[in-house]
Amino acid sequence: MNEIIVTREQREAKLEGMGCKRKRVEDIRFTQGKGNYVDDVKLPGMLHGDFVRSPYPHARIKSIDKDKALKVPGVLAVLTAEDLKGVNLAWMPTLAGDVQMVLADGKVLFQNQEVAFVVATDRYAADDGINAVEVEYEALPVLVDPFHSMDADAPILREDIKDKKDGAHGPRKHPNHIFEWTVGDKDLTDAAFAKAEVTIKELISYHRTHPSPLETCQCVCSFDKVKGELTIWGTFQAPHVIRTVVALIAKIPEHKIHVIAPDIGGGFGNKVGAYPGYICAAVASIVTGKPVKWVEDRIENLTSTSFARDYHMTTEIAATKEGKVTGLRVHVLADHGAFDACADPSKWPAGFFNIVTGSYDFPTAHLAVDGVYTNKAPGGVAYRCSFRVTEAAYCIERGMDILAQKLGMDPAELRLKNFIKAEQFPYHSALGWEYDSGDYHTAMRKMMETVDYAGLRREQAERRAAFKRGETREIMGLGVSFFTEIVGAGPSKNCDILGIAMFDSCEIRLHPTGAGIARMGTKSQGQGHETTWAQIIATELGIPADDIMVEEGNTDTAPYGLGTYGSRSTPVAGAAIAMAARKVKAKAQMIAAYLLEVHEDDLEWDIDGFRVKGLPERFKSMKDICWAAYNSPPPGLEPGLEAVSYYDPPNMTYPFGAYLCVMDIDVDTGVYKVRRFYALDDCGTRINPMIIEGQVHGGLTEAFAIAMGQEIRYDNDGNVVTGSFMDFFIPTAVETPHWETDFTVTPSPHHPIGAKGVGESPNVGGVPAFSNAVNDAFSFLGSTHIQMPHDFWRNWQAAKRLGAIA
Ligand code: CDP
């Protein structure tokens, strides 16, 4: 039965497919407080676990006395490394090929490291138990500064591997050295520098920060002794990976492990890895026979789960006098903390940092990265970025501004002069990537025209003159940033996590009445997958998005996938969705041909069904076809209408964008005001423009936080001094600037719907825009580079150092 819908526009509008600003369906439950988060999981007899943590950043553990804790009412067990050794779980593998203590084994290596796990009938009893555990420490010398990690007299942190000459990524130069990773042609690059007319060299540091999602990391583990099955509800960005890793390290058959990631309150990379809390809760459940819940508090989250960045990038650019770049040389000192727990694909110890040539046509480049240990928390996750891409974008975008300053050129003009041209795509970069598509000149010019860039520069010149005349105490900065991202890990031939290949998946099952369910290997943490995935299916299959239920996060029902991080969902799972839909459509076409008594080739697709070519009145809607698929399929064709696709992308996707920040800074107080922020993003085909805008707003707000104040800072004794939201900058609506968004559309040529990722882009492009604005503001006073974060205090210090304050 076809519904009578008058126009094509109405039929299309009813689908709410790709390009529609469809409202987020998940918000119905979120705005009514009906989300279902891990902490909402309450099981009969459930126990609570919590950690005794080290106050010392580096110390030997002389003894742990649990006796008093075990006498605390409600405390049932106290686990230490000695207990975990019995089940071979005192250490766990990290995603980066290192090992990490689950509970302190003989020594502690960072402040707030997990020392013992107290299990009790409620959280209060667990807390009392923690206070009653007696640990005797012997303090050891502390290593905080990564630039001293490889000193001859540096304290050796990892005694477990001190004699190992090789690590997961090749030879180690020092007991505190993790790896050296090099890419590019060194000789050619050195030669380019030897004959360069102009060069710049600057140490550009991207400080340590933290993804700090609203909901901290947590889990509930429930071991069923009778069935031998372990069920884990957790805040997992990659549930299937967790299931496989648990199977491998706990030796529980994988089909007896059920991992469920319910609603997640933000991840930003923080919830990709495995943490001691998960292992301890699972062991505690096996030991006690009861479900065990572990929920981090904010301080624990900020100080012990995965940090981000902490890259110190010595950046050199060679160029001609006219401003044509001829070479790029970067050395990175990467501070990985106490264990290398970076969440990068296995073969990429510095992630995709080799996208550091950015949007520019560098004929040659060379990159070397040294990873080192310090007495800090482990991690190194992609905080709203694709595996170290934000560090790379910051490095090159600051570098280009510094070069422009040296050449006396406008930073936007320098970029336009060096962009990869539209006709050069697919473009092979000097550091090994194949950029799929781009039109950088168009995006940059659109940005410059929209904001009246030339007018802003004129105003800046006038304001600088007025400052010099003493008529104003405010300086004005223009922060230009043009970034190229690399998202969609990845082609499985070169991307895996612990050997698990990085494809993604979708299963679509249509029901007889024309509705359906779709399941993916991804896991939304706020990105709106339930809304947008249904839109892809709506366009591909002509079924209204409202009639498609999207389900993620349950490893028993979802097809195997590698999860959501690094903006990989749209490039990989988004493609799997389109491919699964096309399989369904192919069968639907066979059924339609049978119903319309024509050959399949005589049919054409028309919005929501198939039509006989040349006979427009002969039409079968997808709704008709769904009914027939179950109740009157063509003879010889099995009933049902469903398909699954595992999509292994041929390449990554390369979104890009042109951003501009206009900032005024009062030199006497260091107080800044973001007067204007314009963000043009190109993420190829746009599935839901409203969700894209939301993603850009969120990412820019995080970029603002990172550039302007957010930092995980340690004092010289290894104490974390920004371990709570009292000190760790989280902007509220009061501080957050107004965002102007814009776009161009350059589809990805290899993605089935031409889409690229977008979630990370504003963080990648935003940070250099803010930092370039601050640096641009101060540049006329003689500075070339001021380190982030640019809080009021540092701005004031810069003003003083540069002589702007008497
Ligand atoms: O992997 P993650 O979901 O974090 O990032 P993403 O693939 O960039 O997608 C973030 C959200 O933006 C999803 O809801 C996407 O469907 C949506 N999006 C879109 O509407 N159009 C695009 N071209 C890219 C993403």
Helices and strands in order, then pairings?
Elements: H1 8-15, H2 27-30, E1 47-53, E2 59-65, H3 67-71, E3 75-79, H4 81-85, E4 91-93, E5 99-101, E6 107-108, E7 114-120, H5 123-132, E8 134-139, E9 166-167, E10 170-171, E11 177-184, H6 186-194, E12 198-209, E13 218-224, E14 229-234, H7 239-250, E15 257-260, H8 276-288, E16 292-295, H9 298-304, E17 307-319, E18 325-335, E19 365-372, E20 379-381, H10 389-407, H11 411-418, E21 427-428, E22 434-435, H12 440-451, H13 453-468, E23 474-484, E24 496-497, E25 500-501, E26 504-510, E27 516-520, H14 529-541, E28 548-552, H15 569-596, E29 603-605, E30 609-612, E31 615-621, H16 622-631, E32 642-647, E33 656-666, E34 672-682, H17 689-708, E35 740-743, H18 761-779, H19 792-801
Parallel strand pairs: 1-16, 14-15, 17-20, 18-19, 27-28, 34-35
Antiparallel strand pairs: 1-7, 2-6, 2-8, 3-7, 4-5, 9-10, 11-19, 12-17, 13-14, 13-16, 17-18, 21-22, 23-33, 24-25, 26-27, 26-32, 29-30, 30-31, 33-34
Helix pairs in contact: 10-18, 12-13, 14-15, 15-16, 17-18
Bound molecules: cytidine-5'-diphosphate (CDP).
Cytidine-5'-diphosphate binds next to helix 14, helix 15 and helix 17.
Organism: Rhizobium lusitanum
Cofactor: Mo-molybdopterin cytosine dinucleotide; Cu(+)
Domain Aldehyde oxidase/xanthine dehydrogenase a/b hammerhead: 32-141
